[in-house]
Structures are given as C-alpha cells and as structure tokens.
Specification:
Layout lengths: L1 H8 L3 E3 L2 E3 L2 E7 L15 E2 L4 E8 L9 E9 L7 E2 L2 E2 L1 E7 L14 E10 L5 E10 L8 E9 L4
Parallel strand pairs: 4-12
Antiparallel strand pairs: 1-12, 2-3, 3-5, 5-10, 6-9, 6-11, 7-8, 11-12
Length: 157
C-alpha cells in the first residue's frame, strides 16, 4: 500500500546540471508533458509513456553564443551497458544552436535550448536507466556526461 505513495514522492526522474564550454546544460521534461509542473513531476514514467526531453542551455553573462554544438546521447542501464530495442541501440545524434533568444524554464533563465532534443519513445518497465550525452564543438569535445537517471514502472504496480 505504501509503495505507490513512496514511488510518487520519490521523484522517479532525476536531472543533473552539467557544464560544457562555460555553459550550464540541463534536461527537462518535454514542455507538452504534464510532468513539467512541480508536484506532477513526481509521477513516474510507465512502459507505454512516450519519453521526450527538452535541453536547456544557460549562457553566462559575458558568454559567447551563435555556436552550434553536436551532441550524441546514449541510454544505458546500471551496469553501463547500452540499451537495445530490437537490434538497434537507443542512441541518437543531433545539433543544438546556442543562441541568446528566449528559452525560459523552471524559474531560471535558460537562454537557449532545444525542444524534444532527446526522444526515447517507449522503454521496458522495471529497469533503471541512465542517459549520457557527449557534446562536441569545432574545437572541444566533452566526455560522456550523466544527464538523467530514471526508472520505468508498470501500470499494474
């Protein structure tokens, strides 16, 4: 009886803020998802949920903008093994443009970002997942950075 209550208050998805090239980078729930609201964000993802995440970039006060960053994301399990759906790994490549146009989220001024930057789709329940991202510009490349940890539940539980 207490497990569903604890599951909801446990905050099933944890996001981390990382720094790359002097900019803070963070993932958020998709803007079209109800989990963007504070209390509703405690609701876990289920096996039939379409998981999509927005990326936000905070430009420093005297930071540079106008760059394009390539990024590569990978979904891994707790043993650091790639997650496969069929014969294909859950990974992707894309580009985000660092700009000074308005992109405000979560009471913090996130100057730049990309909507639906990472689309995971449906993933299997009863597993713990870790989402890693590697950024690359023309001059520098980051290591794999842990950006989010989450678990997926079954609706029966």
């Amino acid at each position: 009886m207490f497990r569903p209550i604890l599951a909801c208050f446990g905050g099933k998805m944890k996001f981390f803020t990382r720094t790359f090239d002097g900019h803070e980078v963070r993932l958020f729930h998709d803007a079209n998802n109800l989990r963007v609201y504070p209390i509703i964000s405690w609701i876990p993802y289920f096996w039939d949920s379409d998981i999509a995440l927005d990326m936000a970039i905070k430009i420093p006060r005297f930071g540079k903008y106008g760059d394009s960053w390539n990024y590569h994301w990978e979904l891994r399990d707790l043993d650091n093994k790639m997650i496969y759906q069929g014969n294909f790994p859950k990974e992707g490549d894309d580009i985000v443009t660092v700009t000074n146009k308005g992109f405000r989220r979560k009471l913090v001024y996130w100057n730049s970002g990309k909507k639906r930057a990472i689309v995971l789709g449906n993933v299997h329940p009863h597993r713990e997942y870790m989402l890693y991202i590697k950024f690359k510009t023309a001059t520098i490349e980051s290591d794999n950075m842990l950006m989010a940890c989450f678990s997926v539940d079954d609706r029966d539980t």
